[in-house]
Every structure is written in C-alpha cells, then in structure tokens.
Design goal:
Elements (H helix, E strand, L loop, with lengths): L38 E5 L2 H11 L3 E5 L14 H8 L3 E4 L5 H9 L4 E4 L8 E2 L21 E2 L7 H18 L4 H26 L6 E4 L5 H6 L3 E4 L11 H14 L3 E4 L6 H10 L2 E4 L15 H16 L3
Parallel strand pairs: 1-2, 1-3, 3-4, 7-8, 7-9, 9-10
Antiparallel strand pairs: 5-6
Helix pairs in contact: 1-4, 4-5, 5-9, 7-8
Length: 319
C-alpha cells in the first residue's frame, strides 16, 4: 500500500478557470448562465460544479456545461454556450478531460479561469489495462498506453487539494465574500477527510486487492487505498478490448479471486457483461461520479462515493 499523504493546509493558487453551462444534479441549466446578481461560475462537468456549489454557497450562481446523463468526454461546446461563458465571472474546469472545453476557455475573455488540474499533481494511469492481468499470461499483452489521469476527484485527498485551490481563487475573485468561501472550503475539506478515513478503514482488511472495471477511472482511488485496478478499456471508456485482453482478464480473475466486473452508469454495460459472462463473474456498478442521474446510487458526490465503497467492500470481501 502506498504511503498516504496528508491533505495540505494550502493549495497552489488558481490561475485558470474553465467555463461551462449545463445541467448537473445541483447546478442550474446553461440557459441561466451569467449576468446574475451573484458570483457567476461556469463549471465544465459535475465534479467541478459540485466544488463550486459547496464552496460558493449562497454567494455563487453555478451552471454546468455538461448535461445530466451526458458522457463528459463527448461534450461539444455550442456557440450559445461560448457566449454564456463570456458572461460569467469565473470558469472552473479540468484541462485535458474535455478538449472542446479547453478550446472554449482559451478563447474566452473570462477574468477568472481555474484549471483544477493545476491545483494538484496528476499521475500516469491507464496502463492498468494489460498490466497486472498480463502477468498471468505468457504472452504479456499490453493493450493501452498510460497517460496523465484526469480522474482526481475519485481520490478524496486529491479532491480536497483542488477544493482548497478553488477556495483561494474564489476569495481573490470575489473578496467581499472571502470569509464565507474560506469557511465553506474548510467544511468541505473536513468532509472529504472523513470520507478518506471511511475508505481507508473500510478497505484495509479486504480479502482481495484487485478489482475489474470497464473504464480506467479509478487509478487514484486504487493507489490511495492499496488496491489494483484492472480496466477492460484504458482511459477511453468507449474503446473495445481485444480477445487477448479478455482472455488475460479471465485468467487474472481466477488467480486473484476476483468476483465482479464493474461498469458505470453513463456508458453501455455491454462489454462488462460480456467479459463477466466469459469469466463467470458477477457485474455491479462502480460510479466514476462524472454526472448524477436518476440511475445514480446517490444524490450527490458524497452519497455516490459511499455507494462505491459498499460495492467495493462486497466485491473484494471485507473481513
């Protein structure tokens, strides 16, 4: 298990913010973006909108570019959304996750641009596909190349680091409400610390340390809690695995006592069910919390993450 890092007291000050206007479970629709009496924040997708709402509180008007149920990686920015972005006071996004958002932010004149990726360190993940599973195959297939993993919000510690940076950016952009932003940030960081503790204690005595997902979104979570993620696909949730990859996973599952193939709510479960059937495994949901919909196992980030913890405990066999 990796050595755990403490949540820092401060984060790097934010220099860039992304923009977006769309529906999330908590953010308002894009049609309402900008020109309100509040601190108008456009967020790229749900994890960014959630941070903005938790930290901004009653002083912020938050909109999201990504609609509920829309796969964030597939987002295309419309001309209307670009205009709405220009009308906002700040934009909060995650660079390199949504290329059209990156382009829209770069072209916008929004004064406060906050890039969440600049507020923590990003690691190389994605080569989980073909890594551990291939060790059980003489051919050693490796299907995916790793890359900078953007799914930082699935690690409560990294998400807390970003929250502190966002709080600092809000204080600078809207100093009249700086005290409230500091208070809200501290409360959010404390809750994320408590979530981190529940994950650490809930997973430390599991019988297995290996879990299988369709999408390599859980690399930070696995690293944080001493687990190994085996992704059917790499960082691209839409790619299809080769026959060799499926055989590797089946062999690995037998060797490591894997019971479950996890799929997510915003992407088809067809591949997961096919792999599970071939390897005689069960399927279950492990939600990457990229958007909250009516099918989500929770109403917000914290409740979905709690549902994920329970799903992992069941699949890994906690003592």
């Amino acid at each position: 298990m990796n050595v755990r890092r403490l949540i820092p007291a401060t984060a790097v000050a934010a220099a860039t913010v992304l923009g977006g206007a769309t529906l999330s479970s908590c953010a308002e629709s894009s049609a309402a973006a900008g020109n309100t009496a509040k601190f108008d924040v456009v967020a790229s997708f749900y994890p960014m909108a959630f941070l903005a709402e938790q930290i901004g509180g009653s002083h912020a008007h938050v909109t999201s570019l990504t609609e509920p149920g829309q796969e964030p990686h597939d987002l295309e920015i419309s001309a209307k959304q670009q205009i709405q972005l220009e009308q906002s006071d700040a934009v909060l996004y995650l660079k390199n996750l949504q290329p059209t958002v990156d382009e829209a932010v770069a072209q916008s004149g929004v004064k406060t641009k906050i890039d969440a990726a600049s507020l923590t360190t990003l690691d190389e993940h994605g080569n989980e596909a073909g890594g551990h599973a291939a060790e059980h195959d003489d051919h050693g297939h490796s299907e995916e190349e790793g890359g900078k993993d953007p799914h930082l919000w699935l690690d409560p510690v990294k998400y807390a680091e970003v929250a502190e940076g966002v709080g600092t950016a809000f204080e600078k952009a809207d100093p009249d409400h700086a005290a409230d932003y500091r208070k809200n940030t501290a409360a959010l960081v404390r809750k994320l610390g408590e979530l981190d503790t529940r994950y650490e204690e809930g997973l430390k005595d599991s019988r297995s340390k290996v879990f299988v997902t369709t999408h390599a979104a859980f690399g930070y979570l696995a690293e944080r809690y001493g687990l190994t993620e085996e992704a059917i696909n790499g960082l691209d949730p839409e790619s299809e695995p080769s026959a060799a990859r499926v055989r590797d996973l089946a062999t690995m599952a037998r060797a490591d006592g894997v019971t479950t193939v996890f799929y997510e709510t915003l992407v088809s479960d067809k591949t997961a069910k096919t792999v599970a059937q071939d390897a005689h495994l069960k399927t279950d949901v492990l939600d990457p919390v990229e958007g909250i919909t009516s099918t989500s196992r929770g109403k917000d980030y914290f409740s979905v993450m709690e549902a994920n913890l329970k799903a992992l405990q069941t699949a890994l066999g906690t003592k």
